[in-house]
Amino acid sequence: MTAPALVTDPAIREGFAQDASGLRLVPEAVARPDSADAVVALLREAHAAGTPVTAAGAQTSYVGGSIADRGIVLSLRTMDRVLDLDPAARTMRVQPGALLGDVKRAAAAHGLLFAPDPTSEEESTLGGSIACNSSGARSLKYGATRPHVLGLTVALADGRVLELRRPAMEKNVAGYAPVHDLLDWFVGSEGTLGVVLEAELRLLPLPTAVTGLGLPFPTAASALGFIAAARAARDAGVAGVNPRCLEYLDEQAFAIARDFVGGTWGQDARAYVYTEEESFGDAEPPLDAWLALAEAHDVLADDIQVFEGEANLHQARRMRHAVPATLNERAARFRAQGGRKVSTDWAVPYPRLREALEAANAIAATFGVAPVGTFGHAGNGHPHQHFLAHDPHELETIERAVDATLRHVLSMGGTVAAEHGIGKLKRRWLPLQLSPEQFALMQATKLALDPKGILAPGNVFAP
Ligand SMILES: Cc1cc2nc3c(=O)[nH]c(=O)nc-3n(C[C@H](O)[C@H](O)[C@H](O)COP(=O)(O)OP(=O)(O)OC[C@H]3O[C@@H](n4cnc5c(N)ncnc54)[C@H](O)[C@@H]3O)c2cc1C
User: How far apart are CA 247 and CA 273, in angstroms?
Assistant: First the structure.
């Protein structure tokens, strides 16, 4: 086993110094292994020398998870092969550097679905998705990445390799529950417990057709009221209401999306909801229940859009994706002067979303700042408020407003981070949510698996 070359060329190191967080951390070296054996060899050497190693996929992290200014950034992008796909068993084995979009297309070619769908699916890797337990719009129906991972090959900090599979037994009382399925330790561990070398994925039947509905509303309150009613209808099993996503765009986010498609459609809307229904076999999804529900919440009926067929659905998805992409682009202009985008990732129990957003906007106003766009997975009670900080002073004010919002969100039974992870940017808010006992258990796990603390230092825990 030979470790990959460590590249110290400044231009190459610079190429791995940024992700979507707005932070810049230049690593001391970059390694680009092309095999699991090479990763293991590198970890053995790094462990012996006490050199930090931070795994990186496509570096789309919003929280600085894949960048580091100490030690080696270990880029897994070259390990991007689909190793095996078993249509009968509905499973596939994939290397960590494969782009999620490619994984999904490989499954779709066999009429199968790999369900996790972060908005960044065309830019991010499977390994990053597993390490962050990524989720997306369709997590409303399918959950985040975790339930779709059946097995993992993981290299620990010292190069030991674990082959992990979901336990098959139906009853088990041997030991504490958190050790029953070690796979769950690694999903969502943000590169701090091990490096994912290979994953076995669970596949589902691909829907035969999808219908998208774009619903403009006259107020944020009517849109959010509609979302809560639709989610409640789904949970109650109301016929014809089984959305795979329920996405919310406030007035500013909708303006970006509308500009992306052009035209004068939806001018009176102050909020927008996008939902999709799937059908299997020949059945057409009935839209009557949806339209009745939307009308009961004052939808702007003349501007409702129905998206059918691959090309139209793709366009609807691109329109939604244009919102974070445009805001990232706008924020990039302020990086040189110490500004950046601040994107919240909090969530609350879905029936309280409207109340939480109103409180969050009021809190921001007391600090003299305002979001430049709020959108997200409202069906899960999970919006993203986006702020643009032009300079360090404004950044500090925005972060104080976010801090106050997060405290309020926690008092409502919510979370400080619902999908982007903790990384380096949100570390300070973790102790607000976790009790000292929960935090100590996490630290004990980290110490047991990575006693020298070489894996992704600075992610989740202080370095
Ligand atoms: C425009 C945009 C939209 C986004 N939308 C969403 C969204 O809808 N939902 C969502 O959840 N996220 C979203 N994100 C955040 C990000 O894309 C996801 O977290 C994604 O899963 C990260 O994948 P990546 O390959 O870029 O990982 P990276 O950014 O390279 O790494 C992320 C973390 O995973 C670790 N890691 C990477 N590979 C491995 C590995 N093989 N083994 C162990 N650890 C590893 C890294 O150390 C790091 O901590 C978005 C980002 C952007 C820029």
Answer: 5
Total number of residues shown for the chain: 463
Residue 386 to residue 259: CA distance in whole angstroms: 18
Interval between CA 120 and ligand 1 midpoint (Å)? 8
Q: Token pair for residue 65?
A: 């998870």
**Which is it for strands 72-75 and 29-31: parallel, antiparallel or unpaired?**
parallel
Question: What is the domain count for the chain?
Answer: 3
Of 313, 321, 257, residue with least CA distance to 285: 313
Q: Give CA–CA dist 32/455, Å, rounded.
A: 16
Angular region, 54: left φ>0, alpha ψ -120 to 50, beta rest? beta
Mutate to test the pocket of ligand 1, among 19, 80, 104, 119 (most ligand atoms within 8 A of CB): 119
pLDDT digits (tens, 9 = 90+) for 143-156: 999 999 999 999 99
Pair 341, 325 in one domain: no
Query: Do 236 and 271 fall within a single domain?
Result: yes
Q: Which of 202, 196, 188, 248 is nearest to 383 (CA)?
A: 248
Q: Is the CB of 457 under 6 A from ligand 1?
A: no
Query: Is residue 435 in some structural domain?
Result: no
Question: What is the distance in A from the centroid of ligand 1 to the CA of 300?
Answer: 36
- Which residue range(s) make up the domain with 225? 209-330
Q: Which of 123, 122, 121 is nearest to 134 (CA)?
A: 121
Nearest of 163, 95, 88, 79 to residue 103 by alpha carbon:
95
**Which amino acid, 7?**
V
Q: DSSP code of 306?
A: E
pLDDT band at 263 (very low <50, low <70, confident <90, very high): confident
When mean pLDDT is compared across 29-33, 236-240, 260-264, the lowest value belongs to 260-264
* C-alpha 229: how far from chain center: 25
Q: Structure pTM?
A: 0.94
182 and 225 inside one domain: no
Domain boundary (282, 313, 330) is at: 330
Please choose, from the candidates 384, 353, 352, 354, the residue with its C-alpha nearest in 3D space to the C-alpha of residue 371. 384
